Amino acid sequence: MTEQSNAQQSHSFSIQRLYIKDVSFETPNVPHIFQKEWKPDVNLEINTSSQLITDEIYEVSLRLTLTTKSNDEIAYICEVTQAGIFSMVGFSGNQLQHCLGAFCPNILFPYAREAISSLVNKGTFQTVNLEPVNFDALFMNYVQQQNNANHTADSQQANNGEHLQ
């Protein structure tokens, strides 16, 4: 075998299970909000998290919180946490972090998007179709922010060390 085929065999990724971990739909100003002119102002918050379950088995969670206001009143708050259990054999360091922070959320997003759409529809509000999210770009942005924060902390420690002498 070549080195390349050995490397390919040493890495494996599989989805063991996808599931809704938590769901909430709140309509604090119903029914009177239905009688007002509909001027939606939509805010979407996206959060991801992951945890090691057992050796090379991870749970990754994607939480979407959609808050929609109309005329400065909350029409609804829809929150869905879509999760999955993933096997990631042979991944480490940056590869593992990219899988947990971008690749797995890309898999989870369509399920969470469908759950939000269904809940909003059942609340008899205007249909919501969330646009695709570029989790790779979000992850790279996060990594860049962490690098900048670490660089700033290192610079401050170096400056503090100079003052102590």
UniProtKB/TrEMBL annotation:
It is found in: Cytoplasm. Keywords: Chaperone, Cytoplasm, Protein transport, Translocation, Transport. Signal peptide: none annotated. Its main location: cytoplasm. GO terms for molecular function: unfolded protein binding. One of its GO terms (cellular component) is cytoplasm. One of its GO terms (biological process) is protein transport. PANTHER family: PROTEIN-EXPORT PROTEIN SECB, PTHR36918. Belongs to the SecB family. Homotetramer, a dimer of dimers. One homotetramer interacts with 1 SecA dimer. HAMAP family: SecB. This is Protein-export protein SecB. The gene is secB.
